[in-house]
Write a structure and sequence with these properties.
Elements (H helix, E strand, L loop, with lengths): L12 H18 L7 E3 L8 E9 L11 E7 L1 E10 H8 L8 H20 L9 H4 L14 H14 L6 E5 L1 H9 L8 H9 L3 E3 L6 E5 L5 E5 L4 E7 L3 E14 L5 E4 L1
Parallel strand pairs: 1-8, 5-6
Antiparallel strand pairs: 2-3, 4-10, 5-7, 7-11, 8-10, 9-10
Helix pairs in contact: 1-3, 5-7
Length: about 270
Amino acid sequence: MNHLLRGLAPISASGWDALDDEAKQRLPAALAARKLVEFAGPHGWSHSATNLGRSKAVAAAPVDGVAARARTVLPLVELRSDFEVARDELTDSERGALDIDLSGLDAAARRIAIAENIAVFHGWEQAGIVGIVESSPHAAIPRESDLDHYPRRVAKAVETLLSNGIDGPYGLALSPEEYTSVIETTEHGGYPLFDHLRKILDGPIVWAPGVRGAVVLSLRGGDFLFESGQDLSIGYDHHDAATVHLYFEESFSFRVATPEAAVPLH
């Protein structure tokens, strides 16, 4: 039995299937960072650190005439988001109900996805993660009131990347507010703004809850590295007569190898 303790939960195999299926439907849309950065793993729950390929000198060795160096690693961080499911709903699922209430699961999935996006794009100092936006040396391209100018801003970001030797294709992460504005806008002549931006980028435009503003980044590979230990999974905590207490859990590290490969847009 692994640490998720699913075998101790009062949930049948078909009940777990219903929970896992719901998670698979809810999580992908919100996991924006994974659509734009390089993903490695999952390597398992016991995987604890990412090798940075560096070392630092140790002040003293046990024996004179012997030098020592300590390897530098980036610890993985664990995220957990708790939720509850009514036991009556699970029982109704066994009877064949298709409309069971899994709103707690849905909310927990959104929370942990947003936390992951924020860590990747804006960093998490307490966990030793430097985000894409904070590491970029490029000045943020300021917002303009007229959305018809959005292609010009994105084209300027792409030009900045090209001038720094960063090839494409390129992706665009948009906050939910920015995404809604883009998909609702039609340029003069009736051409959708969304399609115009995709032509400039030659890559995806991603709805990214947790992102502030927008970010243009290269998708050439090797610049932004997400390493998964345990991928997002549902675990069991405890239960009472009415409720089963569950949680989403994952472990990961994130590092920026090429800070120049992203340009933020305010």
